[in-house]
């Protein structure tokens, strides 16, 4: 067999790199069901409570074909700063307030569900739109986290969720739209899918997944906190068997309506496992650059070996 020229070996090296890239692209084609999503909005409000002239921003992984939000994003962040951003009509800015939300899946050494933050803060300012007397802000952060129980015997696990924040709601909002609220759930992995709404996840679709534990009401605050930071806590307990995988679904929302009201939970919604040493976080993906660099490394090794053979 005739020896290959250096150009032939270079083509092979590039082929190796292309193959590694193709492997990564194929492996990542199907989005996982863990991920994050955030949105924020700020609008004018009329005396009747009606709203318009709303600015809305979203963040999260999207399907490249349909544009729909899907899983796979380790972090999301949405921000509207009305002191610097024009309104929906392109006028302003009016400095009506700030709406901000973030969601981050934790990848630390100790497994823990995602960290969520949300704040809706109004200044009392309004736009120049006729008939407008107030403003309203809304933010939401969602995280879907995948874990696996690594213990050797069936047991009961617990997750403690803590929502920390403050509420400026005096005089009390007559529209009942000033609130901090978190919904938390542990859901079986069978038939699970990434959804921004827990109701959609659990009650829609041909075969919805089963909720192992859920609480949509405990982590909720509507009363004025008098400038103080408050903390609400809820523990969910659920049974697991060895090797079982499950999802932790969380949503943190902040609403503020009228005057200079605010709902600020940017001090976070956090969660901890009762036995983190028996839980593994599966919400991880290989970085594209890592795989591509691996392919490049293999290609360079092939070239180096061929070069060494020529010099003998």
Q: Give the helix tally.
A: 3
Number of domains: 2
The pLDDT mean sits at: 86
The sequence of SSEs as H and E is HEEEEEEEEHEEEEEEH
Per DSSP E runs of 2 or more residues, the count of β-strands stands at 14
Instruction: Please give the alpha-carbon distance between the first and last residues.
Output: 18 Å
Major sheet summary line? 8 strands, antiparallel
Shape: globular
Q: Which regions contain 5 or more consecutive residues with pLDDT less than 50?
A: 10-14, 17-28, 285-295
Helix percent reads 10-25%
**Rg (C-alpha, Å):** 25 Å
Class derived from helix and strand content = alpha+beta
Q: Give the DSSP E fraction (strand runs of 2 or more residues).
A: 35-45%
């Amino acid at each position: 067999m005739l020896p290959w020229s250096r150009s032939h070996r270079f083509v092979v090296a590039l082929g190796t790199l292309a193959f590694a890239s193709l492997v990564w692209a194929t492996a990542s084609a199907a989005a996982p069901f863990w991920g994050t999503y955030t949105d924020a909005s700020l609008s004018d409000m009329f005396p009747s409570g009606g709203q318009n002239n709303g600015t809305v921003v979203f963040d999260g992984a999207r399907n490249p074909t349909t544009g729909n939000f899907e899983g796979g994003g380790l972090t999301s962040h949405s921000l509207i700063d009305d002191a610097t951003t024009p309104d929906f009509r392109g006028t302003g800015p009016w400095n009506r307030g700030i709406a901000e939300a973030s969601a981050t899946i934790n990848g630390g050494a100790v497994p823990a569900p995602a960290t969520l933050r949300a704040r809706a803060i109004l200044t009392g300012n309004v736009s120049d739109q006729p008939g407008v007397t107030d403003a309203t802000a809304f933010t939401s952060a969602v995280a879907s986290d995948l874990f696996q129980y690594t213990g050797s015997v069936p047991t009961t696990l617990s997750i403690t969720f803590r929502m920390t924040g403050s509420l400026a709601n005096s005089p009390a909002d007559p529209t009942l739209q000033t609130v901090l609220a978190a919904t938390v759930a542990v859901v079986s992995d069978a038939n699970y899918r990434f959804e921004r709404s827990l109701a959609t996840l659990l009650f829609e679709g041909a075969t919805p997944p089963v909720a192992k534990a859920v609480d949509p009401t405990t982590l909720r605050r509507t009363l004025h906190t008098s400038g103080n930071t408050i903390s609400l806590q809820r523990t969910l307990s659920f049974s697991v068997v060895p090797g079982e995988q499950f999802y932790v679904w969380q949503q943190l929302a902040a609403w503020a309506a009228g005057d200079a009201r605010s709902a600020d939970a940017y001090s976070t919604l956090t969660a901890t496992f009762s036995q983190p040493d028996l839980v593994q976080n599966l919400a991880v993906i290989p970085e594209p650059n890592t795989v591509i660099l691996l392919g490049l490394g293999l290609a360079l090794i092939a070239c180096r070996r061929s070069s060494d053979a020529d010099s003998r």
